[in-house]
Automatic annotation (TrEMBL):
The keyword Lipid metabolism does not apply. Residues 168-184 have a biased composition (Low complexity). It comes from Sphagnum troendelagicum. Signal peptide: none annotated. This is Damage-control phosphatase ARMT1-like metal-binding domain-containing protein. The keyword Coiled coil does not apply. It comes from the Eukaryota. InterPro entries: ARMT-1-like_metal-bd_sf (IPR036075), ARMT1-like_metal-bd (IPR002791), At2g17340_3_helix_bundle (IPR035073), ATPase_NBD (IPR043129), Type_II_PanK (IPR004567).
């Protein structure tokens, strides 16, 4: 699995230049329409006139994603939440051989999918996207809806399914003018323009307009109701949604669902609404204030002539409010007013200093004015919120609305106010989807999807791939497809700009007692609107994911072993991923035939991935709590985003083949051993074969030194006991009894073993399959648990049946068990199969629900969850699944954790050892709890 022990000097140099280029931290704002070089030109058409500087190009065959949506039309911003079902990959150039292979894989995955349960959810699984527009740019919003054809599928998911990628939907040219960008489309292919859930004042104000332009009717939902149901959904279903922000420090809050209510929801939009929420569906708007986001933006605009909200926030970075604010010290001759607890630096009166000074507006620095204004409004809202919380005895206050914009100073100011006035009794919390509560609530009111019932394990927050390259500005026409994404990356390359995703502002200083020092300014480092998109990401809804039932303590389970909130740890792993990037890109491009198209995508992938790394370096919590597993998954997701389906396919095939040729000899060798020696040989074999890990730089360098088989032999020969962690005896005792003599006492074999496999090639063929065979021989049913999607050279569930079939040619046990398990459907031989198949323990394959080298047991496939219920042994193999994640996890059944450490730092830190050390950690059922009981 994935890492490396060293990063070359060249890579390091590039890394630091990318990551420290403060001046280049902001991507240029995108023009509202762009000319896009095309990948899939079929059916393409130029929208608008050809003389247009930036005509819109419509790519009907690349917009296979069809969606459903809800809208919140507010006083300042329009928010859209739309759904797209599990993505149909847009076509990229594939050879016939590749497409045949894909068909075969699809057939196989159909077999796996046949095992899926959908838990009774009417939704199929898909993604929730979040988009916003300025209310004054309604036409952009209309154009967006048309380009995505959101208005055409109001029949819902069932209707969505029936739709094909038809050649319609010109993405209207964006403009700020009042002219109509679109006209109502006639019905086509049975699609209907229908009824859309809408909330916010604009649901009333613009109902006629939407009817006229898009032919849709609004089904109005109450704004407060939507805010509350949106908030409840986020707090229940999205992990790492709520956080505190105090003195520059952001911390995610684990909310206990039983202790969530009552709370105060303070939505700061143009105006502010304060809602007491008592329980699901029960709430009351207890207060509001007209001093809100609109006030800040409006006054700020008047006073500074700034053109955008972000510009104002950015200005405030360099401000010193004491230039306009009257401080206690100004009144008290530099002294504190300590009798009532006010320090000299406390603001006595916002803007009060101006009175005595005979100056014009232009005599003041804009920065100072804006900071004073921001502080005044934030603090005031905090204070009113506190008073209402006090009025109803509420301890938890959640702030939402786009006024917040993830802006550290704003959040700190409000948190400070709450903490100060409540004397620490009440807590201010913020939501990552801050401004989308209303739209989300409206979306959830399409209750037929059962979305409102989703819980956290069914919502996976993926890294929002579109985000780093959309640039600034509130979204105009968005990135619609792969091709546009690539075009963006190329634009940056042409300009020689490294996109390091927008960086959040720096920490403000506070001076206690309500006085604030000015925030530490940092040049041009405000997060732009695209980073707000970065923060919310895309929610993947997967109704087939479930918590793994054998976790001993699901509530406190933490998959990651390495804590990346530690700065040096984070820096190290970010560097490793950065250093491995050039190689990975080469492999990725080669895996897609090395064509120009592949090269383009490869370069774009590298840019995008670097942007994410840079972003995380600046704000580690940008995507929620960050662990190594997330980083590794992000890389895989990012590859998929640029349609690299399986980078290591060729390597995996080559290594499978090579390993299969020596399998018969290995099996014969194993069979010649006594049971005790055989068991040791099997375990050592698994560990030795775990060296084939293309995610480890050190190992990849090793592969130049010999053939696969030579390296495997070398690895086995080097194996020395005791291993770095060596519980082999304990395992052996459980397995073959004390003394190692089979038959010396009656042993009950395990009923069902889950073998979590890691790499393709020798690892699975020479390591895990022989172990599976041994278990089967002892009467244990074996389930091979493998990835649902490719990650590095990890074997996938779809690939396993063919590997097992090939191995079964050399082994009767495997053949019978695999046949009994339905794996050998098309390899039925005519010898020996007439025997009683029911008596043979079964060998099956199950997908784990992941596309990453690690495994997060909070979210596994439902098949795995079901089959795990009767398992009494787990074997977690490989660094990703047994060390990076789950090394400290406890389970309700016996667990064997087997891995070779292929990273020096991890070896030192986790095991006090060195690279290539091995771990054989055996933990009997409820190992942790019995330890506690003692
Ligand atoms: N790019 C932006 N453009 C305009 N305002 C922004 C932007 N980003 C943040 N804001 C702030 O967010 C506020 C709007 O927040 P939000 O979208 O939650 O409210 P709204 O729904 O438009 O208003 P209301 O609910 O009162 O009708 C603005 O008044 C402004 O203070
Ligand atoms: C009018 C709404 C509800 C529109 O979203 C909002 O802007 C608001 O709550 N304004 C504050 C009005 C008040 O309670 O004084
Ligand atoms: Mn609103």
């Amino acid at each position: 699995m994935a890492d490396s022990s060293s990063v070359g000097p060249a890579a390091q140099e590039e890394w630091s230049s990318v990551l420290s280029a403060e001046a280049a931290t902001r991507a240029p704002p995108p023009p509202t329409t762009i000319t896009r070089p095309l990948l899939d030109l079929s059916g393409a058409a130029i929208g608008g006139s050809k003389e247009d500087h930036n005509p819109t190009i419509v790519l009907p065959n690349q917009s296979a994603e069809v969606s459903h949506f809800a809208i919140d039309l507010g006083g300042s911003l329009i928010k859209l939440v739309y759904f797209s079902r599990a993505q149909q990959e847009a076509k990229t150039t594939t050879t016939e051989a590749e497409s045949n292979k894909k068909k075969l894989e699809q057939k196989r995955s159909g077999f796996l999918a046949g095992l899926r349960r959908h838990g009774g959810f009417p939704i199929l699984g898909g993604r929730l996207h979040f988009v916003k527009f300025e209310s004054s740019k309604l036409n952009d919003c209309l154009a967006f809806i048309k380009s995505k054809r959101l208005h055409r599928c109001s029949k819902g998911i069932e209707g969505v399914e029936a739709l094909g990628p038809t050649a319609t939907a010109a993405a209207g040219k964006s403009s700020n003018s009042g002219s109509s960008p679109t006209t109502t489309m006639p019905e086509k292919n049975g699609e209907k323009n229908g009824v859309i859930k809408a909330t916010g004042g604009g649901a009333f104000k613009y109902a006629e307009l939407f009817k006229e332009k898009l032919g849709v009717t609004f089904d109005k939902e109450d704004e407060m109701q939507c805010l509350v149901s949106g908030a409840n959904f986020l707090l229940r279903a999205i992990r790492d949604e709520a956080f505190t922000h105090l003195e520059g420090h952001k911390q995610f809050v684990q909310l206990d669902q039983n202790e969530l209510f009552p709370y105060l929801l303070v939505n700061i939009g143009s105006g502010v609404s304060m809602i007491k929420v008592d329980e699901e569906g029960q709430y009351e708007r207890v207060s509001g204030t007209n001093v809100g986001g609109g006030t800040f933006w409006g006054l700020g605009k008047l006073l500074t002539k700034c053109k955008s909200f972000d510009e104002i926030l950015e200005l405030s970075q360099g401000g010193d409010n004491s230039a306009v604010d009257m401080l206690v010290g100004d009144i008290y001759g530099g002294l504190d007013y300590s009798k009532i607890g006010l320090s000299a630096s406390t603001i006595a009166s916002s803007f009060g200093k101006v009175i005595a000074e005979n100056k014009d507006l232009s005599d003041y620095r804009k920065e100072d004015i804006v900071l004073s204004l921001l502080r005044m409004i934030s603090y005031n809202i905090g204070q009113v919120a506190y008073l209402n919380a006090l009025r109803y005895g509420l301890k938890r206050i959640f702030f939402s609305g786009f006024f917040i914009r993830g802006h550290a100073y704003t959040m700190d100011t409000m948190s400070f106010a709450i903490r100060f006035w409540s004397k620490g009794d009440a807590q201010a919390m913020f939501l990552r989807h801050e401004g989308f509560l209303g739209a989300l609530g409206a979306f959830l009111s399409y209750d037929k999807y059962g979305l409102a019932n989703l819980t956290s394990h069914q919502c996976v927050e993926r890294f929002p791939m579109g985000a780093p390259y959309v640039g600034g500005e509130v979204h105009g026409p968005p990135i619609r497809d792969l091709n546009e994404k690539i075009t963006w990356m190329e634009k940056f390359m042409q300009k020689g700009i490294e996109i390091t995703a927008p960086i959040p502002i720096s920490l403000p200083g506070t001076t206690g007692l309500g006085g604030f020092e000015r925030p530490l300014a940092r040049s041009g480092s405000l997060r732009s609107d695209s980073s707000a998109a970065l923060n919310v990401g895309v929610l993947h809804l997967d109704p087939s994911l479930e918590p793994f039932p054998l976790l001993a303590d699901p509530k406190n389970y933490e998959p990651n072993t390495v804590d990346l909130s530690d700065q040096s740890e984070r820096e190290y792993w970010l560097r490793i991923l950065f250093g491995n990037l050039p190689d990975l890109v080469e492999k990725a491009v080669a895996s897609e035939g090395g064509t120009d198209d592949a090269r383009r995508r490869g370069d774009a992938f590298a840019r995008a991935f670097k942007a994410h790394l840079a972003r995380l370096r600046e704000e580690p919590a940008a995507y929620g709590k960050l662990g190594l597993a997330n980083l590794l998954e992000m890389r895989e997701e990012c590859l998929r985003e640029f349609h690299f389906h399986d980078v290591y396919m060729a390597i995996k095939e080559r290594e499978n083949e090579a390993a299969l040729t020596v399998l018969p000899d290995l099996l014969a060798e194993l069979d010649s051993l006594e049971p005790a020696a055989r068991m040791l040989a099997l375990i050592e074999g698994v560990l030795a074969a775990n060296i084939f890990d293309w995610g480890s730089r050190a190992c990849v360098e090793l592969y130049h030194s010999g053939t696969i088989i030579e390296i495997y032999r070398m690895s086995r020969n080097k194996m020395k006991r005791p291993l770095r962690v060596d519980n082999f005896e304990a395992f052996q005792k459980k397995f073959i009894g004390s003394g190692g003599n089979e038959g010396s006492e009656k042993l009950v074999p395990h009923k069902r073993a889950l073998l979590f496999v890691d790499n393709s090639g020798a690892d699975v063929v020479l390591g895990m399959l022989p172990l599976a065979r041994e278990l089967l021989r002892r009467g244990t049913e074996v389930v091979l648990v493998a990835n649902s999607l490719p990650a590095i050279n990890d074997v996938t569930a779809v690939e396993l049946p063919a590997i097992v079939a090939a191995a079964a040619k050399h082994c009767d046990t495997l053949r019978r068990a695999a046949t009994a398990g339905g794996l050998l459907v098309d390899v039925v031989g005519d010898d020996g199969l007439s025997e009683d198949v029911a008596a043979v323990p079964v060998l099956t394959v199950v997908e784990n629900g992941c596309g990453s080298p690690c495994i997060d047991f909070r979210q596994v496939s439902s098949e795995l969850a079901v089959i795990a219920q009767d398992a009494d042994l787990m074997v977690l193999e490989g660094m990703g699944r047994a060390l990076h994640t789950n090394y400290n996890a406890r389970f309700q059944c016996d667990v064997l954790k087997l891995a070779m450490v292929k990273n020096q730092r991890l070896a030192e830190q986790l095991l006090n050892g060195s690279i290539y050390d091995c771990v054989c950690r055996y933990e009997p059922a409820n190992y942790g709890s019995s330890a506690l009981a003692n």
